[in-house]
Design brief:
Number of helices: 17
Strand order of the largest sheet: 3-2-1-4-5-6-7
Enzyme class: transferase
Bound molecules: uridine-5'-diphosphate
EC number: 2.4.1.-
Pfam families: UDPGT (PF00201)
Organism: Anisodus acutangulus
Radius of gyration: 22 Å
Strand content: 5-15%
GO molecular function: UDP-glycosyltransferase activity
Length: about 475
Amino acid sequence: MDSSQLHVAILSSPGMGHLIPVLVLGNRLATHHNIKVTILAITTSSSSAETEFLKKSNGKKTIEIIPVPSVDISHLIDSSTKVFTQLRLLVREALPGIRSVIASMNHRPDSLIVDIFCTQILPIAEEFNIPKYAYHPTTAWTISLALYCQVFDKEIEGEYVDLKEPLKIPGCKALRVDDVVDPLLDRSDQQYEEYIKLGMEYASFDGILINTWEDLEPETIKALRNNDKLRSVLKVPDFPIYPIGPLRRTIETTERDEVIQWLDKQNHESVLYVSFGSGGTLSSQQIIELAWGLELSQQKFVWVIRPPCDGDADSAYFNSAEKEMREYLPEGFLTRTKDMGLVVPMWAKQVEILGHSSVGGFLSHCGWNSTVESLTNGVPMIAWPLYAEQKMNAAMLAEEVGVAIRPEILPAKKVVRREEIEGMVRMLMQTNEGKGIREKAKKLKMSAENALNEGGSSCNSICELVKDIRSRLL
Ligand code: UDP
């Protein structure tokens, strides 16, 4: 490494949905800006996908990955502790280990970028006097909420979910209370307090990177930049915003597994891909309804399936045990649909699948990585949000951007019936209305590409970020 080369350390919180965007950002900085990138990855001991992914990624020459060993938080949680709180605790407990890693580095990073659950690093960044940026790996709308919640916290009495009117953040789409992020569902739960702290921490960074792009959320980004009320409540003169997306993984292997070989034999845009991300689960009853809905639609499908869980939809986030599919799918389903679809247990190569020309729709939990992977391939969606900020993503995709349809009811609250699923699948995949939605998704794909191409808004925004990091060198 030459002495003038910038060194950026990026800290990622546990979980594939966090690790993936951090690695993608790291790769972009290393390959497009000749920056030395060190990823500090806080891992969980239970995720084999995570371990495998880290192993593969560490083989690349462009970035160095230092795994930060997982910590035991069992003494701090019980069975009611929400995933959001657990992630905050996991990072909080890992802070001494992270501090030691930074202290022992020969070439101290010139800047720290931290993802959403790692904003608690602030005192360490300040101790070492390292400029710090937060990476919010989803939308401008969701970060507007995280920041603006300080205002709601003071102005709203009682529970948000009891409000008769939508929440209004200046300049943003009104937020229906049914679509609020999970931490706002119950003000007495620890995750509420953690969420409020997150918003305050965000405001203390030297800049915030967002995995969105100007054309996708023009009004929200503008509002975020010009929100004077927010600045005065947060008591910060400024928090520069860098919309740098849509950053996403590109196809990594040339190996054609069973799913890809099956897709090779299907018609153009004829297959619906169904997946609920790295940790989403459905109830036993919902899996049965979904299976029937797919079967009744007579549409080709690839369904990545995880055993049912009748607790919270994110309860497999840290713990995903496999179980024989026949035990929980409707009797005879696998036999009856053997020429119609593939059911893949636990994990599939999603980027390769969504990039395949046979895929014409994605029934998704609307995790932001999955959403970005769908949009950058021009694939329209059936938005089936489960937890975290996914309901906001679904609302934006269906109501503002027009690239998705949604069930009438919230899947996180009630069972979506087979007839509705059949109807949505047919509508998206077989009707002119569905064709219109696909056209919009294809236009959005072009806009996403333009944003990251030379001279595009996100490409410029990353350059601005690098310039800012350089300007802060001691
Ligand atoms: N993923 C995958 N195969 C799977 C499930 C998920 O490759 O079977 C990847 C997916 O491509 C995405 C990430 O895992 O990059 C999931 O992130 P997302 O933000 O969509 O959801 P989360 O898992 O965080 O809920």
